[in-house]
Amino acid sequence: MIKRKKSQTTLELAVTFIAFCAFILGIINIWVWGHAQIAGRNNSYEVSRTVAGSDSPGQPAGYNPSSLTEDEVILGN
After folding, report:
1. Given CA atoms 64, 67, 68, 71 in this order, what sign does their dihedral have?
2. For residue 61, which phi and psi values (nearest 5 degrees)?
3. Between residues 18 and 37, which one has the greater pLDDT?
4. 56 and 69 in contact (C-beta within 8 Å)?
5. Disulfide check for 47: which of 15, 40, 58, 61 has CB 3.0–4.6 Å away?
6. Could you give the CA distance from residue 73 to residue 27 in angstroms, rounded to a whole number?
7. pTM of the full predicted structure?
8. How many CA atoms lie within 13 A of 24 on its CB side?
């Protein structure tokens, strides 16, 4: 009986650890995606400010945000 209970605890701990690691990896991937969005917006903003400040402003570079898919969060592609 004691060995069976110990096996159950080990199995639950292993499953919980795997789920926790997947959760943390998902959070990290969302964090990296967010920082990439900030960098993209900043570059676009800087280019548009240069164009707006010139004598003959043209079309400022637009910002096209990328979407975050479920595969990027889970698999990190």
Report:
1. negative
2. -65, 130
3. 18
4. no
5. 61
6. 8
7. 0.55
8. 6
